[in-house]
């Protein structure tokens, strides 16, 4: 209704202005004055109502100047000036309304797309039911093109989902049977069946909708500044206008001063810029609970981060499988995963996931027995397999060595026994996010001076993560109360943002100047306590949001400052009699339109925004990232062969060296060479510097050199194995290859693959 009322006001004032102009040109001066008076009066009444409404809400805005200017132009018979002020006022209000509606469009789209119905199976037939009727465990059909109604798990088919509205990802994401799918995303592929795991009210998208409805721009400190500004600007305007009238004796000068002071650019620019910033953060998959939170986020200088689920993936991943002497690595993993298929433990899920990623066929276990806190035992292919904690009755030197290694790496251990004999150990660790390093560097560039890791985890584990990421300080082994105290200490020093995802992070998020929750899979408590919620499980979206926050605040202040400066200058000119009311009205119209259009720049990406990857480069990044995942497991073979080099060499040593060499020359080197030829030139173009990939190319050269050296050793070896004089250099060569390849893979994944638009943890 307000929109149509403002449009009607604009039509009336513009019509009156042009009608009066036409009549004036035809010599009907009296009729022209009447037309201009109609336009002036048409604007005067709504402007007076806006002032009264502001007073009723405890605000005294600068719209009062517009009312005085309109009334003054009628009093001194400057009818043309009054009509111009009416057009100026109505145009500014329409543009301001459009700016706010345009800026909020992305937020509005979030809850307008909320699913309202679901197709629930009843006796094998899907029926359309209200989404609120869906219950835990219901089997649902999601046809092509429809929205996923509630969170669930894929039960039949493959779900190809467009998650752009929820996460900002531009490309569809595939989910196989057994994988979780969030509500609010669109099925971009064939129909699939899913099982509801929560009700509609508890679903991911329902939470996003609640957050979006809380998002308003008028609570930002920079916006409230307009009300404080009016407290001195209005008296100052009246003083200048009164002096101009008193000194010159011409009331028309006072009216001219009032005209050029109407309306205040700050009142128009700040809400438009802040609302535009809220819109841009929503596009990045970030919901900011109001303009105040956005403005505070833009001022943050200290960043406090929880470790688990924020800087790390948040779930254990298999980092190594160490077979006992005489055992095979893949066989150990296959047997462990076969047993763990029947377990709900988080470590079991990681082991099964790794086995499936490696394409291992998992036999069905029998006689499964799970001992809570100890492990799971089952019969697999006629053997008794146990997966879990180690038996402490006896320890071999090999077992002690694996325990020591796990302690040094901060890894968890899962022991695998076959018929009560240790077959191997699986090491698991919560890995650092691939995008964490790049995100922290971007945040430092954007103005974050200090990064603090705050965690309840052990100090040695936290320190290892902090060292990799370059964190300034680590506060480890903190209870929820200890986390709150740590955040409060940082708040005393500087404006502080806190990022977390767990229930235990909620008090700390509330204690920070601005709390940021990893809402994609974080707790409801943390999302409720936070001021900002990342709706996707990617920390780089925080850097996007901070870029937007800083830019929006800068544009708001810039627009308001320039507009006010121009208005003040025009007031002085008008007071001296060099700017008549009609000319002043035209000038102020231009100032107001300019500041609103400048404020709308906050809708566009700034120079410091995240690099946009074109489709061709994105496809290359995803392809080579996928190849990395396939090549990583065989890398362990290189270290295993180096570990087992002995004098005299074992009978199969030469054969194992040849297998390593074949893997390197036939699989790994072709991958590295194609990266050099196709990926690196594309990355040079994307990063704007052909020298950006030089260090990576140097690593390729070192890998080539070491592979060639290994091949030469194989040529020099005797038929029964390497010569004694070759062993030391062979070990150095193999360990060197393993170290260079492991580091090189990690560097590429952080520096390049994290740029892929569809990169997922």
From TrEMBL:
This protein's UniProt keywords: ATP-binding, Cell membrane, Membrane, Metal-binding, Nucleotide-binding, Translocase, Transmembrane, Transmembrane helix
Pfam assignment, any one: E1-E2_ATPase
Domain spans labelled Hemerythrin-like: 622-755
Location in the cell: Cell membrane
P-type ATPase A domain ranges (all copies): 114-212
Transmembrane segments: 6-27, 34-52, 229-248, 254-274, 555-579
Superkingdom of source: Bacteria
Topology class, membrane: Multi-pass membrane protein
Family in the record: Belongs to the cation transport ATPase (P-type) (TC 3.A.3) family. Type IB subfamily.
Protein name per UniProt: Heavy metal translocating P-type ATPase
